[in-house]
Amino acid sequence: MGSVVQLFIFRWQNLLVAGDPLKVNKRFIYVACTAIFFLFNVAVTCAGLTIKNRVEELRPQYLQNYSCISSLDGIPGFNYFEMEELRRLFLVSTVEAFIVVVASCLLIHLTFRSLRDTNISQKTIDMQRKFQKSLILQVTTPVVVVIIPGCSVMSLVCWADFRAGGSMVIHIQEMTNLAILLISTHGFFGTLIMISVNHPYRMFVQEALKNCFKPCASRKLEPASRPSEVSNPKLPSQPGPK
Region entry Disordered: which residue ranges (predicted)? Predict the structure, then answer.
């Protein structure tokens, strides 16, 4: 998630002219992006390492309350942990996602403001705005298709009361199926957005489609030809014997 912030930071700084008070040295940007990378990953790693495998403590209880676990028990790597520890990991990820969204919105605002205050030509400004919008669209696609459904399912799993049983478990299963179905379409929507916002890709696809459908369009149904009428010409008279 930190890579999204880094992308918008470099995008914003590249549009600032020399001498602008907000122009920052590239070395400082590299240090800041590296710090963001390590901070985000270390926080998630530490939250994950605090989750302990409580197999001796929770195994009898889980096997008694959830019969479906019996088929998975004994598989290498299958761990038993408390829900509170999973919630801690989810909260860390949620805080990071919130920071990324707020920072990205702020950097996008600064980028458009720098375009408004710059002295470059209007044609260049329009091109930069178009590129910025396409960049936002490409970044928004995985957020809408992957992150939001995934976080929604994780929140249901972390804070739902499975002991209630009945309709609660059924609704959670339905939401999980819908979220996984939506996440599986990320490749399709990502490719579609990438082709639509990039002019070279769009022209290549259009040309390929034209070449595919061109033989079908040029092929015309010709009417069946009538059988040629065969005439019976008179045979030339053969000379008789002399």
Answer: 220-242
3-state secondary structure of 166: coil
User: Residue 9 CB: number of other CB atoms within 10 A?
Assistant: 20
**Contact by Cβ (8 Å): 90, 155:** yes
Sorted by where each begins, the domain ranges of the chain are 1-119, 121-207
pLDDT for 41 equals 86
The sign one gets for the Cα dihedral 50, 55, 56, 58 is positive
Residues of the chain with pLDDT under 70: 1-2, 17-20, 117, 158-169, 215-242
Output the CA angle 174-177-179, nearest 5 degrees: 110
Which residue in 205, 12, 224, 20 sits closest to 112, CA to CA?
Answer: 12
Q: How far apart are alpha carbons 148 and 51 in whole angstroms?
A: 24
Instruction: Quick: pLDDT tens for 139-161.
Output: 778 778 887 787 777 777 766 66
How far apart CA 217 and CA 52 sit, in angstroms, is 65
CA 165, CA 87: separation in Å to the nearest integer? 20
